[in-house]
Design a protein that fits this description.
The complex is a heterodimer of chains A (422) and B (549).
Chain A: H1 3-17, H2 19-39, H3 47-65, E1 70-73, H4 80-84, E2 88-91, H5 92-101, H6 105-115, H7 123-134, E3 142-146, H8 152-164, E4 168-171, H9 179-200, H10 206-229, H11 239-248, H12 256-271, E5 278-283, H13 291-297, E6 303-308, H14 309-312, H15 323-332, H16 340-354, E7 358-364, H17 368-383, E8 388-393, H18 403-421
Parallel strand pairs in A: 1-2, 1-3, 3-4, 5-6, 5-7, 7-8
Chain B: E1 2-4, H1 11-16, E2 21-23, H2 32-37, H3 44-54, E3 60-64, H4 68-80, E4 85-89, H5 99-117, H6 123-128, E5 140-145, H7 150-159, E6 164-166, H8 188-200, H9 215-218, E7 223-231, H10 235-244, E8 252-257, H11 264-279, E9 296-302, E10 306-313, E11 318-325, H12 330-345, E12 352-358, E13 370-371, H13 374-385, E14 391-395, E15 400-405, E16 411-416, H14 425-435, H15 439-445, H16 460-472, H17 477-499, E17 505-508, H18 515-525, E18 529-530, H19 538-548
Parallel strand pairs in B: 1-2, 1-3, 3-4, 5-6, 5-7, 7-8, 9-12, 12-13, 14-17, 17-18
Antiparallel strand pairs in B: 9-10, 10-11, 14-15, 15-16
Classes of the chains: A alpha/beta (422), B alpha/beta (549).
Chain lengths: 422, 549
């Protein structure tokens, strides 16, 4: 019997009728899994990756168990002021990713389809909205979101603000990457901090914020050193851990846990063996629950993901003496802001840093920002001698993707890399 | 000629440089050129811009970063180097906070225009370019949502009995002239601050952070109905439709397209049916049947899978009914089925006083009678079969539709599937073929399922490969069929969800004969469906009933 599937089936059955019970059951399941991470961790994983599984799960547990001290945020929102105020941030991608891994996303996707929400919208957002509509997701304290990287933010968060009738703060990120834009966003972040103080009643001192941004800076530095080690070595792992890194490099950046994780990653990779496996630069989200992706890239001597742009794009130099400007710079100079050329430049630089052999652009269903840039990225990366695969799929809704198609494309791409190496 | 795509574009600025401009809203026949350089799953409008540029139809283009698609369209167009003048305006999402930065954007565009045209900015020409908006003074149907394109708008104007106002994202541009005399006096910064404010004060488009101002679009006392247009892969407006659809005081029709006119027939059917909903058969003058004694009429439903005929006498007794597969064109299938029905009833063609045609092929049937959409006909037929019915679920060959009717059988609202085959008879037909079964066998074998099999793919092509792989795994065929039936039921349930549950329910169309699908829909919605022998001829029956009026 597939335990996860059975458990997911219970959540799906219960949600429409008894959402409170479904949430309690889900929480009990996650707590049991968290316990399992502590007492019987996956020994195949290095310590850093065992650690991060617990860190991200703690966020989801806290968001579900103590919504009164949690905030919904978009993935690219700087959360340092929230941590200082003792608030747990959780994003669309975090919760939907967990629901999908629990195999209960279908009920929530159908719920949004019944409401008439377009099926072409990103499935992470649709699952999230469906969970809110079904009453599974509790009402958080407040919402903070940005226009950065994803149109879905501009739909999901204003809608949920109206639905829950809770305070929300929005940060518009200008398209151009210049100091004027940084100053504008820094100003908005100051206002956001005041907003967080007002809603929580807890002060966010400049000193505490500097400490948090200092942790972000050190996490980014460790991560860049870690990436540089990828050129020679391979740290055993799975694609799920890579997806966890998306969260530690965004909504958890500024926490002690994110700093510790990146430091542990660096220590682990320095001890890892040298490897001639293919290094794949992954662009966009990772379909970490898709079987052909897991079987080909988890613990594989043949190929592994050496870097993911949704992780490294935020790892820019920071200066904690100017915390607001540092957080603002992270947003304005994000690879996902502005034109596709910025994302391409970051990809080329990271491919050089990690010694990537090939790149995979994951054309996640509904993400127009990536879909529209996919061919440009492929042309530019191949122009620099990096073979690139555009892989169509959906990281959160299995109905929009085909295992057979993904398997064939990935295999053919790896065969092509092997052929070129001979 | 500068082409632009968004109502926030400062077109008066172009006039200040003596440059002509026009909205880019041509609907292409296909996206062959765009698909070669950009992903197919971008919104159709974005692809139409790329298509127009690559086809050499546009070489001066001003875009606005309205959404993720438009940002990428700009990247692709810039990369193509096919435009002599290309500019992207950064439009803030929050009106008030962004006025200052938007004013800077306008000045940046002004500098770009000056460099390109090599002309001085003429304040008088700029001031003269502002035109006051014209308020609605008579009842109208509003086209809302995302741009519909010139050709589609013309189709709506032709198909709807009331005047039509374009209130889409590009259609309701209204920008107040900055100050009393913008041509002199103010310094440039102040002028452009005011201009930026005027542009941002327009009724917000859906991508703005605060869209509460849009409510006035739905509350205009002269508004009689809404055609809400959405483009596949443009989520902003599809999302708004989901939010507003149930709280409106006027009827609404959702039209989803891929921004091509490849489904002209389907679009026309929906627009005409909506017109019928708004004003009782579109306000068309129908000649009353003025006959005494015994007489007969016929209804022909020319569908994609079958052509059905019903002959009625003046007392509404069914004299004959027949269903034959559509083949060799609508006209010949209609003639053949009418001839067979007449044979069955033992009548001559001359005995039929009036014919009403319905279905996709209705416009192509030269029967001498009139044509009425299958939405109205199914409603009428369903009401005749069971007057208690308020919701008709019709699953045909290429369409599934849900129709809400009132106690007289008149259409109050309806929704239909998109171009996708999922949830239609064609989907089941293809899956039956994959399983090597006839539709009848599929209907029967699906009932003896034992284990729940989930077909996760909605796409017919993906579902087909999923079925093949389930067969390879030796999963029992009845279980697979049950999974397929549930997949159709989920699609239908989503359509019903858009109208809301209101019984009684009837299922019509060929798929009504499939017991497995009927059970699956009943289970999914928690309802009981009224199934009758006449389910497949319901449209033709309704057409015949109209012929008796």
């Amino acid at each position: 019997m597939d335990l996860v599937k059975t458990f997911g089936g219970w959540i799906q059955d219960l949600s429409p009728r008894r959402p409170e019970t479904a949430r309690r059951l889900l929480l009990a399941g996650y707590r049991a899994q968290r316990m399992a991470f502590s007492v019987a961790p996956d020994r195949a994983l290095p310590p850093s990756k065992r650690y991060v599984a617990g860190v991200v799960m703690d966020v989801v547990i806290r968001a579900l168990a103590r919504p009164e001290s949690a905030a919904m945020v978009s993935l690219f929102t700087p959360c340092e002021p929230l941590f200082v105020a003792g608030v747990t941030p959780f994003s669309v991608e975090t919760l939907s990713g967990y629901l999908m891994a629990t195999r209960c996303e279908k009920a929530f996707l159908e719920r949004t389809a019944d409401e008439g929400v377009p099926e072409t919208m990103c499935s992470f957002h649709r699952t999230f909205l469906g969970a809110a509509e079904a009453g599974l997701m509790p009402k958080p304290k407040f919402i903070v979101y940005t226009s950065l990287a994803c149109d879905g933010n501009m739909l999901t968060f204003p809608y949920l603000q109206r639905k829950y009738d809770i305070p929300a703060f929005f940060i518009d990120v200008p398209y151009e990457k210049n100091e004027e834009a940084v100053a504008y966003v820094a100003g908005r972040l100051r206002e956001m901090t005041a907003f967080v103080e007002g809603v929580t009643g807890r002060p966010v001192t400049e000193e505490a914020l500097r400490e948090a941004v200092g942790r972000s800076r050190r996490a980014a530095e460790s991560y860049r050193d870690y990436l540089a080690c990828q050129k020679e070595r391979r740290l055993a792992g799975d694609v799920t851990s890579e997806m966890y890194s998306v969260f530690t490099s965004h909504i958890l950046l500024g926490t002690k846990e994110a700093e510790t994780y990146n430091k542990m990653l660096l220590e682990d990779i320095r001890k890892a063996p040298k490897s001639g496996a293919f290094r794949l630069l992954w662009l966009h989200v990772i379909p970490y629950m898709q079987e052909p992706v897991r079987t080909r890239l988890n613990f594989s001597d043949r190929a592994f993901i050496c870097a993911c742009d949704l992780v490294y794009e935020s790892m820019i130099p920071m200066d904690e003496t100017r915390p607001y400007e540092s957080m603002a710079r992270r947003m304005v100079h994000s690879g996902c802001n502005g034109g596709a050329d910025g994302r391409i430049e970051q990809a080329i630089a990271t491919a050089g840093l990690t010694g990537a052999d090939g790149a995979v652009v994951f054309a996640h269903w509904g993400c127009k920002g990536t879909l529209g840039a996919a061919q440009l990225m492929k042309n530019a990366l191949e122009g620099r001698g990096l073979p690139t695969l555009i892989l169509d799929g959906d990281a959160c809704d299995p109905s929009n993707t085909s295992d057979g198609q993904v398997a064939t494309r990935l295999d053919a791409f790896l065969e092509m890399l092997e052929e070129a190496r001979r | 000629m500068i082409r632009y795509v968004c109502k926030y574009t400062p077109i008066e600025l172009f006039a200040g440089f003596g440059a002509e401009c026009a909205v880019l809203d041509d609907i292409p026949e296909n996206f062959d050129l765009s698909d070669g350089v950009a992903h197919a799953n971008l919104c159709g409008f974005g692809k139409s811009v790329i298509e127009a540029v690559l086809a050499g139809e546009v070489d001066e283009l001003v875009l606005v970063n309205c959404c993720d698609t438009m940002r990428r369209v700009y990247d692709v167009v810039r990369n193509s180097e096919a435009c002599r003048f290309l500019h992207l305006i950064d439009l803030p999402h929050d009106g008030g906070c962004g006025r200052e930065s938007f004013a800077r954007e306008l000045l940046r565009l002004k500098a770009a225009c000056a460099a390109y045209t090599r002309r001085e900015f003429d304040r008088k020409a700029f001031a003269a370019a502002f035109s006051p908006p014209s308020p609605a003074v008579e009842p109208y149907v509003g086209i809302l949502g995302v741009r519909a394109g010139r050709e589609m708008e013309a189709m709506m104007r032709d198909g709807l009995a009331l005047p039509v106002r374009n209130l889409t994202c590009i259609g309701n541009r209204a920008v107040a002239a900055p100050g009393a005399s913008p041509e002199n006096g103010k310094d440039e910064t102040a002028l452009f601050m005011e201009y930026a404010g005027a542009l941002l004060s327009q009724l917000p488009c859906r991508r703005m952070n605060d869209t509460t101002g849009r409510k006035q679009l739905y509350n205009d006392p002269n508004l009689r109905g809404i055609v809400y247009h959405t483009i596949k892969f443009c989520d902003y407006y599809g999302f708004e439709y989901a939010e507003i659809k149930s709280g409106l005081s006027v009827p609404i029709l959702r039209l989803e397209t891929d921004y091509t006119l490849q489904s002209r027939g389907q679009l026309r059917t929906r627009i005409e049916a909506f017109s019928e909903t708004l004003s009782g058969l579109g306000g068309r003058e129908r000649i009353r049947m003025n006959k005494t004694g015994k007489y007969y009429v016929a209804g022909i439903d020319s569908g994609s899978a079958s052509t059905d005929v019903v002959i009625l006498d003046n007392d509404r007794n069914v004299m004959a009914s027949i269903v034959i597969p559509t083949g060799g064109g609508a006209q010949s299938s209609a003639e053949k089925s009418l001839a067979e029905a007449l044979d069955l009833a033992g009548m001559e063609r001359g005995a039929i006083s009036r014919i009403v045609a319905t279905g996709y092929g209705r416009e192509h049937i030269r029967s001498g009678g009139e044509s009425i959409t299958e939405i109205s006909c199914h409603a009428r037929g369903a009401h005749f079969l069971n007057p208690g019915v308020r919701t008709v679920i019709d699953i045909g060959g290429q369409d599934s539709k849900v129709i809400r009717i009132d106690e007289t059988g008149a259409v109050r609202n309806f929704v239909m599937n998109g171009k996708c085959a999922a949830g239609t008879g064609r989907f089941l037909e293809m899956m039956a073929r994959t399983l090597g079964l006839s539709l009848k066998e599929m209907s029967e074998r699906g009932l003896s399922w034992k284990e729940d099999v989930v077909i996760s793919s909605m796409c017919t092509v993906f579902a087909e490969s999923e079925v093949v792989s389930l067969v390879a795994q030796n999963r029992a065929v009845p279980d697979i069929i049950h999974g397929l039936n549930n997949s159709v039921a989920a699609k239908v349930a989503a359509l019903v969800g858009r109208l809301g549950l209101e019984g009684d329910f009837i299922i019509t169309g060929g798929v009504a004969k499939n017991k497995g699908v009927v059970h699956a829909i009943e289970g999914k919605l928690g309802i009981k469906l009224y199934v009758c022998d006449e389910a497949q001829i319901c449209g033709a029956l309704g057409a015949a009933l109209f012929a008796l009026d």
